[in-house]
Amino acid sequence: MPETPTRTPPALQERSRRSQQDILQAGYALLKEDGADALTVAAVAERAGMAVGSVYRRFGDKERLLLAIQRSFTEDLEAEITERVSLPRMRALLDPAVAVAEAVGACTDAFHAHETLLRVFFLLGTRNEAVRAEGSRVSVEGNRRFAAALAHVPVTHADRDAALDFAYRLVYATIAHRVVQGGDLESDRPLSWAELRSHLQSAVVAYLLGPRRP
Questions:
Q1: pTM assigned to the model
Q2: Could you tell me the residue range of the domain that residue 37 belongs to?
Q3: Does residue 177 form part of some domain?
Q4: pLDDT tens digits for 81-129?
Q5: Which of 83, 114, 158, 166 has the greatest number of beta carbons closer than 10 A?
Q6: Positions of the chain with pLDDT lower than 50, given as ranges
Q7: Are residues 89 and 142 located together in one domain of the fold?
Q8: pLDDT tens readout for residues 28-42
């Protein structure tokens, strides 16, 4: 007679889940406070209040821990934006200009809210291929989500897909630049996040909904 597989009791499963979350939260805090160089397995273990061996057992070495932190962070970021641009919510916005402005605003607001950690991962991605690959995956998925959110909008371009792709690239490049470089690299004229958001919304509305283009 085959043996019944041993099942982990729910209490232990919940304790393990909480421990994993504690480790991830400790990693977030270290990256936000002191950047990528502060992230070590020992530092994360100390911050999470657990033994170094517990972190190694769950995540392995520093590289895999870093990627797990990034993946958890990007999943939360994706969920936040997805909620803002869910299809029922976007299709309820009958004015095309309002829908476009909301899609742009959702991306901008999320980047602003999480700019410290995003800056860490953007900069890490210039020297860590695995981090860059995860960032690219999330960015490409964001592009698809942006286009899907505006599927009901009458874009005034012959090549609708190319126009939406460019609009997303414009938004993404602008806010990613702001996250990494701040607001005064290319100009000494102050531009707050709120102003940047408003100007981006106006620019993308004009580009997507303006006079028909070939």
A1: 0.87
A2: 8-60
A3: yes
A4: 999 999 999 999 999 999 999 999 999 999 999 999 999 999 999 999 9
A5: 114
A6: 1, 4, 6, 8, 11
A7: yes
A8: 999 999 888 889 999
Q: How many domains does the chain have?
A: 2
DSSP structure string for the chain: -PPPPP---HHHHHHHHHHHHHHHHHHHHHHHHH-GGG--HHHHHHHHTS-HHHHHHHH-SHHHHHHHHHHHHHHHHHHHHHHHT-HHHHHT--SHHHHHHHHHHHHHHHHHHTHHHHHHHHHHTTT-HHHHHHHHHHHHHHHHHHHHHTTTS---BSSHHHHHHHHHHHHHHHHHHHHHH-SSSS-SS---HHHHHHHHHHHHHHHHHSS-B-
**Cβ-based neighbours of 186, under 8 Å, separated by 6 or more:** none
How many residues are given for the chain? 214
